[in-house]
Amino acid sequence: MSDLASSFTHLNAAGQPAMVDVGAKTPTRRLARARSRVVLGADILKLVQAGDLPTRKGPVFQTAILAGIMAAKKTADLIPLCHPLGLDDCQIQIEVQEPDAIHIICTATVTGKTGVEMEALTGASVAALTVYDMCKAMSHDIVIQETRLLDKTGGKNDFHHAG
To answer: Molybdopterin cofactor biosynthesis C (MoaC) domain: which residues (predicted)?
Structure first.
């Protein structure tokens, strides 16, 4: 296996996919925050700024919040090598970004042996996809522009995005 491949934690010595064994690790309080940016367009954003935009499928922001939380709780079912975690908490915030976008921030916490980055990223991503799904009747120019990890704490290496 190459030096680069040996740095991947989810590959065994033969280079095959493998779950990381966290059995010997001590549980710690872990937190991760992730953000998805959704460019709705100025016209749709104006509609949502007056209050949550109702659609035939229901209220956009409330539905996206619920979808994001549900997705974070199901991350291990979606991402093959993620450990199943019993989240202590998961919160979704939606912030308006003038002139035409929103930020969806998912914060996930757990007391456990492995981090919650994937849960936070999954929650933010699915909330963004839900906003797209609910608003696509108004425009197909909506763009999910970026999903990124903002912070993680409580593990071997803490991380904070400096941007």
So the answer is: 19-155
Give the pLDDT mean for 113-134: 97
The larger pLDDT score, comparing residue 128 to residue 48, is at 128
Whole-model pTM? 0.89
Contact predicate 95/116, CB 8 Å: no
Q: Which residues contact 131 (CB under 8 A, 6 or more apart)?
A: 38, 40, 60, 61, 64, 102, 104, 142
Question: Is residue 92 included in any domain, yes or no?
Answer: yes
pLDDT value for 1: 44
Q: Indicate which residue of 88, 133, 141, 158 is catalytic.
A: 133
Average pLDDT over residues 10-37: 89
CATH code for the domain of 112: 3.30.70.640
Q: Does residue 16 fall inside a structural domain?
A: no
Total count of domains within the chain: 1
Let me know if residue 159 belongs to a domain: no
Q: Is residue 14 part of a domain?
A: no
Other C-beta atoms closer than 10 Å to the C-beta of 72 total 30
Longest dimension (CA), the chain: 56
Give residue 159's region: left, alpha or beta (phi > 0; psi -120 to 50). beta
Is residue 158 annotated as part of the catalytic site, yes or no? Answer: no
